[in-house]
Amino acid sequence: DAGADNDLYINQAVVFIEDAIQYRSINHRVDSKSLWLYRWYYSRTCQWILSLTITVILALAFVEEPSSLTVTSDVRYRLPAWNPPCGLTESVELLCFLVFVADVSVKSYLIGWKEFWKNKWLMAYILTLIVSLTDWIVSLSFSCTVSLRIRRILRPFFLLQNSSMMKKTLKSINSTLPEMASVVLLLALHLSLFTMFAMLLFARTKDNQQDKEWVVYFRNLPDSLTSLLVLLTAANNPDVMIPAYSKNRAYSIFFILFTVLGNLFLMNLLTAIIYNQFRGYLLKSVQSSLFRRRLGIRAAFEVLSTLKETPASAQQSYVSAGALQQVLQKAEMDSRCKQAILRSLKMCSCDQLSAAQFQKLFEELDKDAIKQHPPSPEYQSHFMQKLQFAFGHPYFGYLGNVVALANIISICVVLVMDADKQPSERDDFFLGAINCFFILYYLLEMLLKILAMGLRRYLSYPSNRFDGLLTVILLILEISTFAVYGFPHPGWRPEFMGLLSLWDMVRLVNMLIVFRFLRIIPNMKFMALVVTTLLDLVKNLRAFAGILVVVFYAFAITGIMLFKGAVVPLGNNSIIYFKGKCDFMVISAHFQAEGVHCLLYLLSVNLICRWAKIYFVAWWLISSVIWVNLFVALLLENFIHKWDRRCHRESLSDIEYQRTVELMFRDVLEEPTEEELMEKLHQHPHLQLCR
To answer: What residue ranges are annotated as transmembrane (predicted)?
Structure first.
């Protein structure tokens, strides 16, 4: 009947609007049951369960054999780690697999059979699950004694496929690879030519005393390549040139030329190419996101225009304002955007909306999120108004910065004076007294600011929350110190009591005071610009961090499987060697946590055994050469964007602008035409439009 049809159209419009908000594809089933399942699948609860499942299956690597549950990572000193019995982690893993099976089943059903065969990610998802479950069965059938577990390397895929932004980022990286490959090949040619020159320059002679460069670094082709590759990372600079330089100063020309051409020219050329190419591909990806948003909004308009209450027109379709209000009431969206759209709808004061008007209303989704701070309290007393003016003035904040600087200087003076003293020789009276004074000032400053600004306005500023939290912690620590050790006095050196000694508590207080000095950042415009750029990267570029986690995890697990049991401690020496044929120093990737730590350390490259060089060179290429340059490119893009905005718009003290990755490129994106939108809508596999 007409009522049921209207309800279906309203629900379809709600889902399409939600798809537009989240930049999701609208190519899914649109019948009543499928819409209910679709909204349930993308609900916060369901997505939270899926995210938790992904976190759990990734975290299993820290518990599985070989376990990382030890206090120290040093193989010489740690106690035997607890390893879970066979079947414990496997049971948790099976539960995770069942969640993933349900996830892929729902996704496959919702998009339909035809769309499923076009979706490579879903097919890869199913293949990963089949391989993982097969490996799980094989592992259990051998009572968990199989050391090679392929499913552990595949686990990061579950994180990757769950994020649309990570998929787009990966696609952008993949598209950039040909341009990267050209520079990497040039880098390889540079390395090969200089390797040949090095083997000719440092060839073996009759005098063994003069052959130190040949013996240590350039004995054969693999050693020569490795030495220069490590020099390219500057990890063995200047060690690699010292023997030759000791023999003849002129040899330094070779190493200078190699470093200048490799590090200053080729590596920076790679950064420039990655920045230029990756920015273009990321821009294309963001452009497709904008198209999805516009398509979702237009799809909502088209289904609402078919409502029975909407008057038909041969020339143009319209949507009633009442129908749009019903959709907005049901749709899950940011309250700021919802209120802004309703205000615009009320100001429009028209009962029927055309496609252009409908689209314009939803442009609120593309605007910066503006956070306005609450107003200050209005005092009636003239005296209180003067106090409010004095303690709410920026100069009062500057005074606080000067006091914080004086606090830092006083701590530095005391630390320098007590640097060479034994704990029993220190007199903590002076440090305890100045800490007491400054903490009381910080408390007074916080209270006066709250008086001037009001509690709600005070807490609306992140810098004030940071200040206030540290002040409260400092006050609690100071009160605890007085309660345990009494008030400061000359010769104040009480014995150890409780969990922390006096010196430990004073050190903790001083570290927090030093940390509190970061409050000066918002008052220094250029420093604030740099810090906000970094914070925006942390908040908005989670997809890139996610791919980095995927790379770290995969390499760490691979390293564990390759080098498990290959590390033997030699007494109390700090040098650790691989067993067998390896003749180079290594850092252990024996356990999961150590594996990740090892990969972080190997960003600067360490000497490794010959047969393992492929693994570590691959890690260096992906992490240092490609990924670090990608991060630099994104940092540059974010910084340049913020700098341009700073030049064109004055920042208002009471307004904060919060931007997403899509909004970073908003000024250069092209709006899709109506023909493009309608053509795409008519290709929808499950939606039949009337026109």
So the answer is: 45-63, 122-150, 180-202, 253-275, 395-417, 429-448, 469-488, 508-531, 543-563, 614-636
